[in-house]
Design a protein that fits this description.
alpha+beta, 5-stranded antiparallel β-sheet, globular, about 200 residues, Nuclear Transport Factor 2, Chain: A
Length: about 200
Amino acid sequence: MKCTSSIVMLLGALLYIPVADPAPAPVSDPAAAPVHALTAALLTSMHAGAGLSMAERYRSLAPVVKRVFALPLVTRLAVGPDWASFSADQRAALLAGFTRFTIANYAYNFRDFDGQKFAIDDNLLTYGEDKVVRTQLLPAHDTPVSLLYRMREVGGTWKIIDVYSDGVSSLALRRTDFAEALAAGGAAALIAYLNEASDALMR
């Protein structure tokens, strides 16, 4: 997958396209199941509030995040062309670091509950080999946040490969952040960056 600016603009535009226009897939589309699983786990984490420590919250979310995201693929795409030059040990360390970083971000950002709800549109949109699940995070007292989950079938199972928050690609943001670390010191610098960022979120 190439995360080009045209793809970003296209998926951002989907926020405003009526569901019937692009020939939606059936409501029972299995590509939506990972998004349902993730949002259910996030709501459980949010409802727990201060009753869970960050370590406990991390442990509760880890199995779901690992299951619904194509983390090996997303790690490679986020790293970019430098991935091809890394050793097996470096790739393994980067995958472990990125996995921990991803889970820590969800644990940190979904730790409080104030009446929020998720609305998921089960009428998926199909673009090439990928599908898009449109959702909204609906705060009780604030503006809704539009979330698009880009799905791809990996090894016979639908997985999340990117999340667009109000049209902004998380994968594109990661590639920008990681490029700075890679330019500063290659794989070792990126591994250190991921571990330090995760540690900060888990405090």
